[in-house]
UniProtKB/TrEMBL annotation:
It is an enzyme of class 5 (isomerase). Catalyzes the reversible isomerization of glucose-6-phosphate to fructose-6-phosphate. This is Glucose-6-phosphate isomerase. Belongs to the GPI family. One of its GO terms (molecular function) is glucose-6-phosphate isomerase activity. It is found in: Cytoplasm. It catalyses: alpha-D-glucose 6-phosphate = beta-D-fructose 6-phosphate. Keywords: Cytoplasm, Gluconeogenesis, Glycolysis, Isomerase. Its EC number is 5.3.1.9. The active site is at E271 (proton donor), H300, K413. Its main location: cytoplasm. Pathway: Carbohydrate degradation; glycolysis; D-glyceraldehyde 3-phosphate and glycerone phosphate from D-glucose: step 2/4; Carbohydrate biosynthesis; gluconeogenesis. The gene is pgi. The keyword RNA-binding does not apply.
């Protein structure tokens, strides 16, 4: 029930022929991923996470036991925040308000602290490494804020981190804080279906059983034959167009509820696929730059560039096939110029705009395809998230790179530690000073 339609324009590709021509390399990629899955060092644990119903039950029990929570503050950055943010904005029922602290700009944090009622606030500190500076700084502040305001601050903190590594795990154990695990074989940007995502989403009221069932559906497709292997197919489309100089991939859902999904996708795609070296250590400099856009809003902004600007883009649209609720456009006397809208629904208009834009791009030789979701619910969104993770993994195979590390990001973290005077980073601090950075 997830449709993939191509609209790739006059410069397009002969799709069946291309799929047949690349069948072997896609099968090799699929088999390699499935074979490496049992090796924890391969960071493919995200494939099996949706099968882990035991952890899900623990998450749900914790949520049930904490009915007093009215505000949940997620302290986490990158992969430790973006998934929960995207899904909660799309599907959260508002029973608990979620707040995301993913930057260290002081003013918004002070502003948030002023609005929160500590007795009704739960803080979920999420860091796989258990040491990221932004998250740890926020944790120190929130921990102190709670300690000063409530009698039992430990009840107000829940930790999500690696089972063994980092600073957070031993601290949680020493203090007796409730702690959930990020499986060691699951990287940050692939962690939305483990407690990194599911714990905040349980508080947001998201139907997690269905979210994981949708992810399992994508697993089924990814493991299967190429004709039904949607992630292998969309990875191939991305691969072929990158070979044709489409260096930018626009990700554009037609939904305000999906407004944070492009942020999650940008991180997943760019951090996984922008690599200097291949698996053998040769310099290759792979990657296409993912760009966020929202329909219809950005039809009145970026679409001008997407249509008439350089032919360096491939656009992925996400379109819903049915609304959850609809709104009729009323007729008004005296505004007959708007007759074409009278009696139609908002969803019809949204749908027409999505189709119109896709076709207008195709006519201008700007390739695009659409991922269509039956409707926006936990099952379909779970499918989409896992689909995009699989697509990323397939692209990593096709480009012969490790899609699961992030050496470029890590270096920035190291420099920050050095600049902030962390113990053990003195030599790096000296080097930076010699280079004029202090
Ligand atoms: O995808 C990744 O690995 C990163 O974006 C991390 O999620 C991000 O750097 C935060 O790391 P951590 O969860 O270790 O605090």
């Amino acid at each position: 029930n997830n449709l993939f339609s191509e609209r790739i324009g006059p410069e397009g590709i002969d799709w069946p022929a291309m799929l047949a021509a690349h069948a072997r390399s896609l099968e090799v990629a699929r088999d390699a991923l499935l074979e490496r899955k049992s090796n924890p060092e391969a960071f493919l644990g995200w494939i099996d996470v949706p099968e882990d119903t035991e952890t899900l039950r623990r998450v749900l029990r914790y949520r049930q036991a904490n009915g007093w929570v009215e505000d949940l503050v997620v302290l986490g950055i990158g992969g430790s925040a973006l998934g929960a943010q995207a899904v909660s904005a799309a599907l959260g029922n508002g029973s608990v308000r979620l707040h995301f602290v993913d930057n260290v700009e002081p003013e918004p944090i002070i502003g948030l602290l002023r609005t929160l009622e500590p007795h009704k606030t739960l803080v979920n500190v999420i860091s796989k490494s258990g040491s990221t500076a932004e998250t740890m700084a926020a944790f120190l502040v929130f921990r102190q804020w709670l300690e000063l305001a409530v009698t039992d601050w430990k009840k107000h903190v829940v930790v999500t981190t690696d089972p063994a590594k980092g600073i957070l795990r031993p601290y949680a154990e020493a203090e007796g804080l409730t702690a959930f695990e990020v499986p060691p074989s699951v990287g940050g940007r692939f962690s939305v279906t483990c407690p990194v995502g599911t714990l905040p989403l349980a508080f947001a009221g998201v139907d997690l059983e269905s979210l994981l069932a949708g992810a399992r559906k994508s697993n089924e497709q990814a493991r299967g034959a190429l004709e039904h292997n949607l992630p292998a197919q969309t990875a191939l489309v991305n691969h072929l167009f990158s070979q044709r100089g489409k260096n930018i991939v626009v990700f554009m859902p037609y939904s305000t509820r999906l407004r944070y999904l492009p942020d999650w996708f940008v991180q997943l795609h760019d951090e996984s696929l922008g690599k200097m070296r291949d698996r053998q250590g040769n310099e290759v400099r792979t990657g296409t730059t993912a760009v966020r856009a929202i329909g219809t809003t950005d039809q009145h902004a970026q679409v001008q560039l997407f249509r008439e600007g350089p032919r360096d883009k491939l656009t992925t649209f996400v379109r819903l096939l049915a609304p959850s609720e609809n709104l009729e456009i009323p007729a008004v006397k005296g505004l007959e110029g708007l007759e074409y809208l009278f009696g139609k629904s908002f969803f019809e208009l949204l749908d027409a705009e999505a189709k119109a834009t896709a076709h207008a791009l195709a006519k201008a030789g700007q390739p695009n395809y659409t991922l269509a979701l039956e409707k926006l619910d936990a099952y379909n969104l779970g499918w989409l998230l896992q689909h995009l993770m699989w697509q990323t993994a397939f692209l990593g195979e096709l480009w012969n790179i490790n899609a699961f590390d992030q050496p470029g990001v890590e270096l920035g973290k190291e420099y920050t530690y050095a600049l902030m005077g962390r113990k053990g980073w003195e030599t790096l601090a000296q080097e930076l000073k010699a280079e004029g950075v202090e």
